[in-house]
């Protein structure tokens, strides 16, 4: 992902930490799913942001591996519970916990994961622990609010684009912001720096989610990991669909709503038709513009931290830029 | 419940705290269920134990209303999630959250409740906050372990009585122990006192659960709040059934196993038959002896705190004794 060796080295240490951390022993049904979901991998972008953000202020980010791991464990707890709610059969190409075990195991094992996330935050200086947990709590509650809004939106006929942006800010972006802020807090950054790093994270987080929406429809199938068009097939209320529903009039509106209402269809045909409508209505362009606005706001904030001699800054820039330009 | 005015006064303050605390605003589906489950009442025994335990060491237990409320919020979080897992339709005679809303709402709203429990612990002195959260985490993980063991046992043919006692220790008793320890920690009690109060709580907690098992079968229907015999009707693996399965031989074993296997039966007839077997096999007596052993061990520990002039001690003794002698 990057030429700078810092990120891969920190990621190695993080994997080692996560795979050797003792989440608990018995009963197996409670603790095996935690080890299982963490073994499925993922980019570990959130803990990496914490480590690099700390590196802007202090040497040896491996000192905060535990707190960085807390963010990853929390993130995976949300995935375990979201997968139950979304009835998702697969996570990173493998069976989800509620499929491999059952929903009750996924509920309870997820609950313990959340508790363990707090354990992982504890090796922090006493004078900032309270503030750190308070901010973590706020973020955690916001992530839950985002998930609830997401579920609510799926049942609503109309969702305004601002509501959608607010939902993805809560569900996805605030945790990226907090990951950066956590590293900055532990690195003893000023409150102003903490806030700017948080805002950088939130901005790129919203951008990343819009990018996800775009890739799901317009990615190059040869490079994309999963089926292109999945969101169109399932009528997922993405930024693209929300804008298309707002802008389509006359025949376009009829065609779009017919496709959304159809229970039986050829998936390829539906994807092709809706994709064409997205281009025709200009919603692809609108989404790209919106995404780029968020990326720009984010990177303008990051630039204020520019330290050419600090390898953590370089790495932070590289890995976030790589995510901006990813094709899968 | 008690003649001493301390407990009712503290309970009033606690209710007021819980009903005015802001758990969050939007979306409604996330926060209404929290207010709903807390409005269903309950004895609030756990937070009361924290407040009274604090009172053994410091005046004005209302100083730790927030931390006491954390215990009650955590307890109600476990009820919300357990009710999903147990597919329970009713909680304190009212619809459970997953029935009134749906399972997804109960999962996510429960998750936020757990987060809010941590928020409520935060107004604690910085020098003990870390230790306090660490102990809370251990207790929380143990409660989850107990719930998982309980679910596992329901699917097993044989459960040993020691396994059962360990399950109820984890699922029920450790939280009573921690509630007392929390008050003691905040009251700046010695580590030895903290441990003795914890052990008192665990012992009476195991006793209370055995009392629940006994009341469900042998309570006076006129005084008992719910249907006597519910555990027998549902084949619940209580201490009584576990011991009966161990001790029944020959015809008794056949009769017991026939009742357990029957899909269609007259509930009254089943309750009567199994109850008679429990008496005949002596398992009622065995359960009562076991329960009384735990109560005795508990109260011997509590007596070491005897302070005739301390009204909080008197209240602690009164309310726990009232639970020992309850008939519903």
UniProtKB/TrEMBL annotation, chains A, B:
Any one GO BP annotation for this protein:
isoprenoid biosynthetic process
Q: What is this protein called?
A: Polyprenyl synthetase family protein
SUPFAM superfamilies per the UniProt record, alphabetical: Terpenoid synthases
Q: Give the family per the record.
A: Belongs to the FPP/GGPP synthase family.
The UniProt GO MF terms for this protein read:
metal ion binding; prenyltransferase activity
Under Pfam families, the record lists: polyprenyl_synt
Keyword Cytoplasm, does the record have it?
no
